[in-house]
Amino acid sequence: MLSRLNYKLSPAARTALSEYIPIRRTQPHFANARSIRNAIDRARLRQANRCFESSAEIDLESLITIEAEDIRQSRVFAIAG
After folding, report:
1. For residues 15 and 72, what is the distance between their CA atoms, to the nearest angstrom?
2. What b-and-e string marks burial along 35-54, b requiring 16 or more CB atoms within 10 Å of the CB?
3. How many CB atoms are closer than 10 A to CB 62?
4. 79, 27 in Cβ contact below 8 A?
5. Is 72 exposed, middle or buried (0-12, 13-18, 19+ CB in 10 A)?
6. How many C-beta neighbours within 10 Å does residue 70 have?
7. pLDDT truncated to tens, each residue of the chain (81 aa)?
8. Is residue 40 a contact partner of residue 1, using CB atoms and an 8 Å limit?
9. Contact indicator for 69, 10 with CB cutoff of 8 Å
10. Is the overall model pTM greater than 0.90, yes or no?
11. Rounded to whole angstroms, how far apart are CA atoms 37 and 39?
């Protein structure tokens, strides 16, 4: 899904997503692929905001890479924590 949108997960983001999924599955209204698609869409929005708010120069790699912080900002981790 991410590759079709020209995005990729950093190794740390891949780990964060693998932790996110089992937590999310235990919560109400989990809808399999739709829930994961929504989580990825929200992570992409967080990634865009992070890049926009950054004072550092943004390169292509930064624009296409979702980082762990983009996943871990989900309220799923706040509820589970």
Report:
1. 10
2. bbeebbeebeebbeebeeee
3. 14
4. yes
5. buried
6. 25
7. 899 999 999 999 999 999 999 999 998 888 889 999 999 999 999 999 999 998 888 899 999 999 999 999 999 988 876
8. yes
9. no
10. no
11. 5
